[in-house]
Amino acid sequence: MRSLLIFTLVGAGAQLVDGALGMAFGITATTLLVLSSVGAAQASAAVHLAEVGTTFASGLSHWKFQNIDWRLVLKLGGPGAVGAFLGATVLSSLATEHATPLMAAILMCIGTYVLLRFSLRTPLTFGARGTSHSAKFLAPLGLFGGFIDASGGGGWGPVTTSTLLSQGKTAPRTVIGSVSASEFLVAVSASAGFLIGLREEFLANWPVVVGLMVGGVVAAPFAAWLVSRVSPALLGSAVGGVIVLTNSQKLVHFFDIHWPWSTVIYSLIVVVWLSLLGYAWRVSRAPRFAPEDQPVSEPESKSVPR
């Protein structure tokens, strides 16, 4: 019962981050599970099965708040489902001693990207709500994002959300809502891949699945509401730093790095993280401008002499 409550809180916290940033549920939850000695493939399987419920609830919440472009969901989510199935199959075929450092390395790279993306390149608020992305652009992006997500235990949001935001063609709230809704297809497909690859082990960690799912579903409506009120720069930088630090510990242990070099590595990560976090805090307090949202002043009408 105690472990179920802990995983419920983890699921709620991960969903709040995911709903506000459009990413990080999988990488946050998977990082915590791997650190608690859950196998890499089993952790990714549990997280994706839980995400079937959390992403469904998140999609409904974003739909209620009108944050979804369904054309973007279909063009991105379909290829993402294919990539997720392939990634789950690959991870399931690896031995535990090989899968754990591989997942830690992938998560650390994703965490570094999230940290730099939100601390140094804060997404602006664009005026457009629709999308002009073509299927030729979205299909490879979804395929790659889905594969990384399943094989690394997370990464769908960091790959797809950050790429779409950097294009500047769609409003951030629409990107986040659409990516969150399309992740449902990715989670279902990845779960099917793990079911085939792991068989009996797939449902062995049911308390983890139930806890993550319940916590995520409960937090999903509040997370969707948070999209327009939270500071992406500050929250993304904080989450990215936590992911980098926790997964670096796994790699340090795997490569058998001892004191004092392990302390040097951790200290360097913390110093860089706090510096970027401080910069993100200053950026989040600075005034933001959205030129497209400014009302266009109409020219003064000239009086016509009678």
From TrEMBL:
<dbReference type="InterPro" id="IPR002781">
    <property type="entry name" value="TM_pro_TauE-like"/>
</dbReference>
<feature type="transmembrane region" description="Helical">
    <location>
        <begin position="259"/>
        <end position="281"/>
    </location>
</feature>
<keyword id="KW-1133">Transmembrane helix</keyword>
<keyword id="KW-0472">Membrane</keyword>
<feature type="transmembrane region" description="Helical">
    <location>
        <begin position="176"/>
        <end position="196"/>
    </location>
</feature>
<dbReference type="GO" id="GO:0005886">
    <property type="term" value="C:plasma membrane"/>
</dbReference>
<protein>
    <recommendedName>
        <fullName>Probable membrane transporter protein</fullName>
    </recommendedName>
</protein>
<comment type="similarity">
    <text>Belongs to the 4-toluene sulfonate uptake permease (TSUP) (TC 2.A.102) family.</text>
</comment>
<dbReference type="Pfam" id="PF01925">
    <property type="entry name" value="TauE"/>
</dbReference>
<feature type="transmembrane region" description="Helical">
    <location>
        <begin position="98"/>
        <end position="116"/>
    </location>
</feature>
<dbReference type="InterPro" id="IPR051598">
    <property type="entry name" value="TSUP/Inactive_protease-like"/>
</dbReference>
<keyword id="KW-0812">Transmembrane</keyword>
<keyword id="KW-1003">Cell membrane</keyword>
<feature type="transmembrane region" description="Helical">
    <location>
        <begin position="208"/>
        <end position="227"/>
    </location>
</feature>
<feature type="transmembrane region" description="Helical">
    <location>
        <begin position="72"/>
        <end position="92"/>
    </location>
</feature>
<feature type="transmembrane region" description="Helical">
    <location>
        <begin position="137"/>
        <end position="156"/>
    </location>
</feature>
